[in-house]
Give the backbone structure.
Amino acid sequence: MRRRVLGAALAGTLAAPRLQAAQAVSFGLTPVFLDSDIVLVRQIEAYQAGRLGRAVTVVKRRTYREVTSLLVAAQLDAA
């Protein structure tokens, strides 16, 4: 289950076309990744940063609606 979620999350990040090279990538997550999964979240950040060649910032929100709102408002690069 986690591999599917992780794969889908990474696919969304790698497909984000509007990113600039010097800019950190902001990536939104919902509570599907709990605070107790901090190691997994850090691994996601490291993997994305390595693939994209730039810093990655994980933004966690409480609900899907909050993450979607940030994405629609262009305050996130991917979710």
Observations:
- Helices lie at 2-14, 38-52, 64-72.
